[in-house]
UniProtKB/TrEMBL annotation:
This is PcfJ-like protein. The lineage of its organism: Bacteria, Pseudomonadati, Bacteroidota, Flavobacteriia, Flavobacteriales.
């Protein structure tokens, strides 16, 4: 995109004045962000880090997920196949300051490995996030291959170009670097607002922009509520803002929230029952899950007894709106072994899901969430876990079984879901083009 405004032209010019990524930074990335790998081939272990090879000492060794190289003593993660070439891709970040801007430079690093050959590396700066003291951000990035199934298929030969303001809605903007180069250069205002050195699994550009313009982020960081801060910024839910008075009560009495999503659902239930939201005993329960489940059951019973006819009418109306908003995802289904994951296509299925798994997916009207897509993981057509996917972030928000607990199939379900997020993204992208 050709820079048009004064700020776009300024950022494009300043970008050319930045020092290139140094050999020291590349060397740090090679040592810090990559795993050490090994492979079992033709009855021998091969270390892809130091090229050493040796025979297993026992029959059980080949089955282990990690082994120790007998030469370099590195802890190797084992590849489960007889491939010849291997590649690992990771992101890291370098923080810089330029002309009053906080610059977050994102580097994509490749590690190429082959048996009996020392690994080789390739590093390329793929994005620059320019943040002014008001928290406004503009991004420069390389172009990507639009025909690829992945959103970060970079065209490494392309130049860094200024991107539109709505680039913040792109999944590329939310790429979280595995590590940040330890020699941090940050604006003084960020230090004043509470930033020290930690990112708490929050993408640097998201933490910085929020810290510069959002008093809630500043309060949470300065009060060392880092878990709550991560939830606030990573989940992109605005319930913390809506429940800010209740959150401040928790901060005041140093109440540790065990499960933020359950707590927010619990506060929503208290509001539905018109309870006193200034009461410490209600806001800070000793057993969160127990009181949450009691209110869910109570609300469900009231809905069934007093508003059955009204609920049926609402379901019919809600179904029309739900179909209109989510019809492009209907029919989406994928499976692995006995587990099948499919999109909930009818509002009545939300009732079945909530009744079977005893959670609040219907009670709290998740079918009305425009940014969420709800799916059901089933075995023998019986619900095992309900999955919520954020359509803006293209990530699994929550995956819960009976009484909001994880089922024994949780890891398999989560892995299957993450591997197929591209199908949801593909349908969403297709709908936007139409």
């Amino acid at each position: 995109m050709t820079p048009k405004t004064i700020s776009e032209k300024e950022i494009s010019h300043l970008s050319t004045t930045l020092k290139p990524i140094s050999a020291q930074m590349n060397s740090w990335a090679e040592k810090s962000i990559f795993l050490k790998w090994g492979v079992l081939s033709r009855g021998k272990f091969h270390c892809l880090e130091c090229t050493h090879s040796w025979k297993p000492e026992s029959q059980s060794k080949p089955c282990e997920k990690y082994i120790k190289c007998t030469a370099c003593q590195g802890r190797l993660k084992m590849q489960g196949c007889n491939q010849v070439h291997f590649r690992e891709i990771e992101y890291c970040a370098v923080l810089d300051v330029c002309a009053g801007y906080q610059v977050v430079r994102i580097i994509c690093s490749h590690k190429h490995m082959k048996k009996n050959t020392a690994p080789t590396y390739f590093h390329k700066e793929v994005m620059q996030h320019w943040i002014n003291p008001k928290g406004e951000v503009r991004t420069m990035s390389l172009s990507t291959n639009v025909f690829s199934n992945v959103y970060d298929a970079w065209q490494y030969y392309s130049p860094l170009e200024i991107r539109p303001k709505d680039f913040q809605n792109s999944p590329k903007y939310r790429i979280n670097p595995y590590k940040v180069f330890p020699q941090l250069k940050v604006l003084p205002v960020l230090k004043r607002n509470g930033f020290k050195t930690g990112f708490y699994n929050i993408t640097p550009q998201i933490l910085f922009t929020s810290l510069l313009k959002d008093s809630i982020t500043e309060t949470l960081l300065k009060s060392s509520q880092t878990s709550l801060l991560s939830y606030y910024l990573i989940s992109h839910e605005q319930h913390i803002r809506e429940n800010w008075q209740a959150v401040k009560t928790c901060l005041k009495y140093r109440y540790k929230i065990e499960d933020f999503r359950i707590w927010e659902d619990y506060i929503a239930l208290l509001r539905w029952f018109k309870k006193d939201l200034s009461s410490v005993s209600l806001i800070c329960p000793e057993n969160l899950h127990e009181v949450h489940d009691k209110l869910v059951a109570k609300k469900r019973e009231l809905q069934r007894k007093k508003y059955l006819l009204k609920m049926r009418a609402e379901i019919q109306q809600a179904q029309v709106l739900y179909t209109l908003e989510k019809k492009q995802f209907f029919g989406l289904r994928f499976s692995e072994g006995d587990i099948t994951i499919s999109v909930l296509e009818n509002v009545s299925e939300f009732i079945e899901e909530g009744d079977t798994l005893k959670h609040c997916v219907f009670t709290n009207e998740y079918y009305k969430k425009k940014d969420s897509l709800l799916l059901s993981a089933r075995i023998d057509n019986k619900p095992v876990e309900t999955i919520e996917v954020s359509l803006s972030n293209m990530e699994v928000v929550q995956c819960r079984g009976i009484k909001n607990n994880k089922s024994k199939h949780h890891k398999v379900i989560l892995n299957l879901m993450n591997r197929n997020l591209y199908q949801i993204y593909s349908r969403l992208k297709k709908e936007k083009r139409c």
